[in-house]
Structures
1.
Amino acid sequence: MFQILDKQDLAPSIKQFVIDAPLVAQKAQPGQFIILRIKEGGERIPLTIADYDAKQGTVTVVFQEVGKTTLELGTLKTGDYLADFVGPLGEGVKFKNHKKVLGIGGGLGVAPLYPKLKILHQQGAYVESIIGAKTADLLIMEQQIKAVSNKTHICTDDGTKGRHGFVTVVLKELLEQGEKYDEIIIIGPPILMKIAAEITKPYGIPTMVSLNPIMVDGTGMCGGCRVTVGGETKFACVDGPAFDGHKVDFDELMKRLQTYKTEETTALHKHKGGNCKCHQQ
Amino acid sequence: MPSTINRSKTKTPMPAQDPKKRSKNFGEVALGYTQEDAINEARRCLNCKKPTCMQGCPVQVQIPQFIKHIAQQNFQKAINTIKQTNSLPAICGRVCPQEEQCEQKCILTKMGDPVAIGRLERFAADWEREQGIKTPEQTPSVGKKVAIIGSGPAGLTCAGDLAKIGYEVTVFEAFHDPGGVLIYGIPEFRLPKQIVKQEVDFIKQLGAKVKTNMVMGKILTIDDLFKKGYDAIFIGTGAGLPKFMNIPGENHLGVYSANEFLTRINLMKAYNFPETDTPVKVGKKVAVIGGGNVAMDSARCALRMGAEEVYIIYRRSEQEMPARKEEAEHAKEEGIIFNFLTNPTRIIGDENGWVKGIECIKMQLGEPDASGRRRPVPIEGSEYILDMDTVVIAIGTGPNPLLPKATSGLQLNKYGYIDTDENGKTSKEGVWAGGDIVTGSATVILAMGAGKKAAQSIHEYLQNK
């Protein structure tokens, strides 16, 4: 059992847990993820690690309530326990001697972007970041991102905070202005990563994305998370989840993410019709 | 007492669920012998002075002895005899390929059916379980620690044998439930998970600790374990990496590896969705590619999940099919359709990426290949399309590189399996390995045999250390 040491509401429907998981915390690296299960009979869901502290023995995860499992997860409180918490999984990302980088986080993608920018910042790189959300309320981890960035751009789709528009608009402007980066890191919904990677491609700037396909075990055993990268099939759980954004077949990824759409709706309806506390408020 | 010998040339039949009924449920197919059946069958054994059957058993069960006890209605003595060398009899009695092992060597095969050794083993184990298994006594600790990586048949056997001697054993499992392939791979209707749980509990009662959610190589490395004070380590991580065919369309929606398909159904209990949270997609028409036991399991699961037509697509003929005959028979009885000498060439998707068909080519058998089986050769121009909603690829697995990659000084062969000597000792000091991670995909009992040998070798090593 893994205890939730702290719970924070980062935005409506976006929550952060700090989990007591000392062994995972000791080995965690930026870019890695964990798989958790709330209880017996529950689904195994992958979440990218948003922060970790080896000394405190904690791992931080951020999730958005979108389906049955995440809604149920959101009802847990500080002091509650998760049945299972497995990690750290996937390959950690390593940066070598970057002088200047650009990090782009869209929506929930800001959370996994943070540990990467944090390490780059610690390594002495000049970190520029663009973070965005649909609306001001949904923008998360602004202070943390600013703390590890030399310059931060904020965007909202509806203009309620920062620039009015997508993060890709600012990305395009920066590149058109002639800004140069050793690497650009983009994390967010697949469509955002696809478009942003298409924008960086003509500039020949190495572009890293982090994928979150459907998984079961997270150890390379099921192959459910297979993605096509540079024409080859890769397992995101062990070969990734970070990949070269210019090589990922995002259209296939987006299609595969729809596999259980019907079942997700069934589970959600059943959940909402039940006695869960989240809908009694 | 010669008068008690049963001279029947055929095995006492195994009671089984009706095929029509069972193809709609996940309940066990073979129901097990009654006491009367068991005694009757046990009396077929000639109790040979030189029992050849035992040569066929990878864990050296005292076969004639336990059968004699059953014939004499002394079931407790029968199970005690089995358990001296086999810590997982309820499992072996169900899933061992006895027809290639003990039963193949039975002298009665010269006249007719061999003694149904597997069914008798299962009977003895089930009888004990019904009585309530007595908690075994724990051996006092010898003060040395052994780590077992993987809780499948190899790991559990190795753990059980070492715990019996008094080693402080900890088993590390990557999943949330222990049992490895016994839990995620072999379906409920062939091996009820309650039985696996009881066998794991028995090993815990012997004193072994089981830690789940531990992906070794990620959370801890082999060297970390030595630093934590373990004196020896056994790796039994299995062959868990699914193989795909590398044909166009394999990433379409509705295409599964058998590993994923079976894990969703067995470990995650997708057959209870939405009571449980993990779904699986099973369309009306399902094609399973491959001819092994895993293919049979996948096909029979698909049927039980509500598929209307389930096809096995196998590139060789029925004769070369590696599945146990009994499993293939069961599958046929349940209505699985076999397309032999057929190989898929591409998977066809619709505009949303969902599988809608599979293009196959007809094959014929040519000259024997390295495996001694006649090589299937495509018949040019014989391609045809089968409409399908779901495709499961069950063409085998490879070694998972996750742990070897994170371990320095561990020698692998060219396929990525771990190199060991005949006792399971690896190139790394204090590290043993056994089961599918050494041999490639094989059987539960061979993995158990490897776990047993390694336990013996670890014991010798630690006595002298």
2.
Amino acid sequence: MIKKFSIFLLIALVIACSSDDNSNGGGSGDNFDRSAMLTNWADNIIIPAFQSFSNDLTALETATTNFTGTVDQTNLNALRTAWFNAYRGWQSVELFNIGMAESTNYYFNMNTYPSNATEIESNVTNGGYDLSQINSYDAQGFPGIDYLLHGLGATDNEILDKFSIDSNAAGYRTYLTDLVTRMTTLTQDILNDWTGSYRDTFVNSSGNTATSSVNKLVNDFIFYYEKGLRANKIGIPAGVFSSNTLPDNVEAFYRKDISKTLTLDGLHAVEDFFNGKHFNSSVTGESMKSYLDYLNTIKDGENLSVLITNQFNSAESQIGLLTDDYIDQINTNNNKMLEAYDQLQLAVVLIKVDMLQAFNISVDFVDADGD
Amino acid sequence: MRIFFVLMNFKSTYITKATPIEPLVVFRIGFGVLMLISIIRFWYNGWIEKLYIEPSFFFSYYGFEWVKPLGEHTYWLFIICGVTSVMITLGLQYRLAIITFFLSFTYIELMDKTTYLNHYYFISILSFILIFLPLNKAFSIDSYFSKKTYKKIPVWTINSIKLLISIVYFYAGIAKVNSDWLGKAMPLKIWLPSKYDLPLIGDSLMQQEWFHYAMSWSGMLYDIAIPFLLLYRKTRVLGFAFVVIFHVFTHVLFPIGMFPYIMIVSALIFFSPGFHKKIISFLRSVFKSNTNRFTIGEYYRIRRGRLTLGIVGCFFVLQLLMPFRYIAYPGELFWTEEGYRFSWRVMLMEKMGYANFKIVDGKTGKRFYVNNSDFLTAFQEKQMSFQPDFILEYAHYLGDHFSSQGHKNVEVYVECFVALNGRLSVPYIDPEVDLYKEKESFKPKTWILPFKDEIKGL
């Protein structure tokens, strides 16, 4: 009986094995190299993006020093340009909410909007503020500077007056400097961590556990796409999650005419990261896309990476139809905003359901048993 | 006449025959110890807090909506479970202990169906059966106090445990006889390659398509064959070796907690009385226990034997039929999940979903979408997004919530996409149906969109 059963099992195994002989999938040894993907992410995308962003912030710091030294229209214009450039650079790093960025709540400090004008004014007037407090998130970062540079008065002259002849002028200048310094310090710390020990920690954590680099960053990627990009930039102001539209919630509310540019920058960062494209280059390396393609050679299913790429492209062209000023867009024809949202939304399903299923990565740290 | 003799023969061999009590005693100790470890592990992992106290909303089983976590008092349920596990192990106030264990454990499982697992269900119904079995009639504190110990019990008591274990394996086996599992090696083809970080086999075997098929087929054969291998004396050791190897392997591959150990220890019941006698005499020597001053009963007669047998018999008829209740529903079982739970369908599907709820004012047409993380934990959202009964219950919760917030003419719609076993995600729920108007029942849910593919099988 034992023998018979063993033979039976063996035959079953042989049948099961030989059924594979004429298929081409899962060849021996050509396993996907996740370490290569992590190396590509760290060395060619994340660290260069942070370096470039850090340079943007240095320029912003210089422009701030110039402006607070001599408050005039020229310096204000230069400062605004430096702020805009850095804000664009920020879009390339927001999604890397891992390591020190995660532990310091970096992105809350840098880009919580809408900013809280009342709190900023009270900080300026009273001083003694602590920007590291959780309830100070909306009084700092890019949205905080947006208010100082574009929202303090109806005209540029009024704004210049606030920094020069207003009774609180010194307070405004100090607050502006403090905001810029804080952003620079936070960013420099994270960059130092990456170029120091964290890079190796990140690359070497190539397992498939809730805390390994691939799982965490894929989750970050999806979170950024859903929250930072889809909801914050388009969905919330367009009133997707509320009974009425909320135009006050657009990114760069006081500057107005750059919301679309920032959205597209964010989407490009998403696409480039998905494709493993090196920062500021057209070279690509191992990525989520190539990982999906590898898994598809085993599974032989739909070509998911193509579907995702196409959906990103549809979203991009739909966003392209919006005006630069979202407040104007929402008030004149919000349907365009909703259509852009719908296109972004369709990709959520592809990356959150189909891609995660292919990677077999859990949506979050659900560490309970399964069966 | 002949049938009569066959039946009488069956009755004397499998039901009334007297057999040594030791297998039941060993089972009692093993069960009690493993339950205690399970409870401690659950607590230690912080899951009581995370699964039963932190969430603001809980998914109920149909008809058990009144079973809810008790806030901070939920810890008491686990304390009761743990204490009764110790009492069961020791055989102290056994009947009271096992009834209390069954009630508290089952209450815990009914609190939130998000955490449904087949092996928790197994523990629930096993502890129900154990209420009716004389597990404390030897080598127990109960028998120490009563100064009475018994040598033999009717054989059906042991056989009912064997039957329950056999049902679990056999039904799990036939559930694997389907075209996804055997014909496509799904979902193992998704799960195994993701185990690339295992030493030695991670980037070699786990990536091989033939290995996925081999695991699917041998898993199916294993589940179907195990009860017979364990029942038949000559293959018993081989069968047990398979049990150990298989469960250790699944433990390495999947996060299935205590289940492998519970099944390994439970399978010991199939061994001969002689084997169990050795374990007990070893334990007696460790605890320096002897029965010198005890009255020794030759045979323990079950009180109200007919009634007890009747209850156990009905229970098994129900167990044998339950897994087939899906036949009463139209549509693909894996898709609609109507009749999926409580049927030993273990690890058969890789199913993921995405559910986006829309709250509409029926009069003005104004609408907005819901942020699920405002109401559900990540785990609850994951489970909700591909199971229709979860979706319906949550839709009602949302409807009630927004109505109470002052929204008028609330209608609840969902845009839901589900991917099953590697198929591309497709719409799952009819987006035009106001779920707030739909009621939960055992009737087929007409608002589930049909499955576009076919999965053949049992």
